Amino acid sequence: MLVIGLTGSIGMGKSTAAKQFAANGIPVFDADAQVHDLYEGVAVPLIEEAFPGTTKNGKVDRAVLAAVLMKDKNAITRLEAIVHPLVRQERSAFLTRHARAGADMVVLEIPLLFETGAESQVDVSVVVTAPAQVQRARVLERPGMTEAKLDALLANQMPDADKRERADFVVDTNRTIPETAKEIDRIIESLRGRDGTTFQLTAGNGVEK
Q1: What percent helix, strand, coil does the chain show, rounded to 5?
Q2: Which architecture characterizes domain 2-208 according to CATH?
Q3: Which of 5, 77, 128, 181 is a plausible cystine mate for 13, CB 3.0–4.6 Å?
Q4: CB-based contact 129:6 (threshold 8 Å)
Q5: Residues 130-145 as b or e (16 or more Cβ within 10 Å = b)
Q6: Structural domain boundaries of the chain?
Q7: Alpha-carbon dihedral sign for residues 51, 52, 54, 55
Q8: Chain segment 44-71, per-residue pLDDT in tens
């Protein structure tokens, strides 16, 4: 089973690309969506213990937590130490499930693929990109987003140029969605039939090498 890592900085078009992979019948693991689920589930008591007052009614209050992260430069590292292992568990379960089902390829949509070293767990990396001014315009249209919040998010991400340098495939999303979709389709066709080596099933167990 070929494991494709899909990544890119905030506002670069990961969701659009992921939808096109899914439209081709390829299972997609969305790390951001998984974090959202954790913020309403098993991560809640752990985050409340580490950051008192950041949860409410059994859920993480994302606005309050974001404010804490903005004020404390070490808070992100502490939060990642809680969340990342949980996401890795869910990712492993996803890979095992689809390997057993006989999937030829799967996509791991991971915003911090390179930053967290997760690139070692994929066979191929795909980076979505767009000019900086386009990226900022897209992100600043999001509710509650400000220049300061965006700058803080970008400071925690590898520069776009570095991601493009490390990618196996680069998709420019500064075009129409149908044009981006065609580029994704071309990548998929070029990967069909390629064997993956980063994940295998051994004696019924999922093993990530």
Answers
A1: 50, 15, 30
A2: 3-Layer(aba) Sandwich (3.40)
A3: 128
A4: no
A5: beeeebbebbeeeeeb
A6: 2-208
A7: positive
A8: 999 999 999 999 999 999 999 988 988 8
